[in-house]
Design brief:
The chain is α/β, with parallel strands linked by helices. The protein has ten helices and ten strands. It has a domain of about 180 residues: 3-Layer(aba) Sandwich (Rossmann fold). Helix 3 packs parallel to helix 6, helix 4 crosses helix 6 and helix 6 packs parallel to helix 7.
């Protein structure tokens, strides 16, 4: 009987992306992406709506597997392991590579139950109270909720709910966190708390974030990937492509591509 391959850490980069294209049925959402994503850094994906940023970030923990008709071509190596090898268990992938979504989505359970849910699923039930406290502390939420752990999570503010979702993600001890526009539904104060939190988390985790906020990308990330769309040969569809990938300071002060400069300066998008 075949057994699923265990992911081992043996690479300086967290991801090596080679000629990756993603399609939904006949529609090619993004194509020919090549990049190496460094460990323990924050990498931001920017670009206009429809350029494939969210599609691409979901390939890193195989979330697109859940969408009927999705095809991923090319290679995504995660710390030396081909994520799409048939021997790799996508469930294990999603534990090692957690995801925080655009809109806070806590379970309609208590704060504590939100954290323990994933721990139980992954059979990480030893020292449960310590694990809950650690996750909430890492998400900069412990001091605010430590006396209300049995409170319904839906009673928290939007910013607190998003930090709870981050705590829920890191409780199962991933090494990479994907964030798909995690601040788009939050006010500026809550957004700053998430950005400050990212600066702490990146000391232990690699972080990839999709954002439409240029200021956020320039403030929070170490590296930046700019995507745009190009019209297909038949003129009917637009496909996402990577235009430039560079250190954030370089991209925002001296971009290599004119198109990048135009987008960052607000002349299109």
């Amino acid at each position: 009987m075949e057994t699923k391959e265990t992911i081992q850490v043996n690479s300086e980069n967290v991801f090596n992306v080679e000629d990756v294209s993603v399609s939904y049925g006949e529609f090619v959402a993004i194509k020919n992406v090549n990049m190496d994503i460094a460990k323990n850094k924050i990498t931001a994906f920017i670009g206009p709506s429809g350029c494939g940023k969210s599609t691409l970030i979901r390939t890193f923990n195989r979330m697109n597997d859940l969408i009927l008709g999705t095809k991923v071509k090319g290679t995504i190596n995660y710390q030396g392991v081909d994520l799409y090898d048939k021997m790799v268990d996508p469930v294990q992938v999603r534990r090692r590579i957690g995801m925080v979504f655009q809109k806070p989505n806590p379970f309609p359970k208590t704060i504590k139950e939100n954290i323990t849910f994933g721990l139980k699923v992954n059979n990480m039930t030893d020292n449960m109270d310590e694990r809950v406290e650690k996750a909430l502390t890492q998400a900069a939420l412990w001091d605010e909720v430590k006396d209300d752990l049995n409170k319904n999570a839906l009673e928290l503010s939007g910013g607190q709910q998003q930090r709870l979702c981050i705590a829920r993600t890191i409780a199962v001890e991933p090494d990479t966190i994907l964030m798909d526009e995690p601040c788009s539904a939050l006010d500026p104060v809550a957004t700053k708390k998430i950005e400050d939190l990212m600066q702490e988390l990146v000391k232990e985790f690699s972080i990839l974030i999709v954002t439409h906020n240029m200021q956020q990308a320039s403030r929070a990330s170490d590296y930046c990937a700019f995507f745009t769309t190009k019209t297909s040969d038949d003129g009917k569809r637009r496909t996402g492509e990577l235009v430039e990938f560079n250190e954030t300071t370089v991209m925002f002060t001296n971009p290599e591509q004119d198109l990048t400069e135009q987008y960052i300066s607000g002349r299109f998008g």
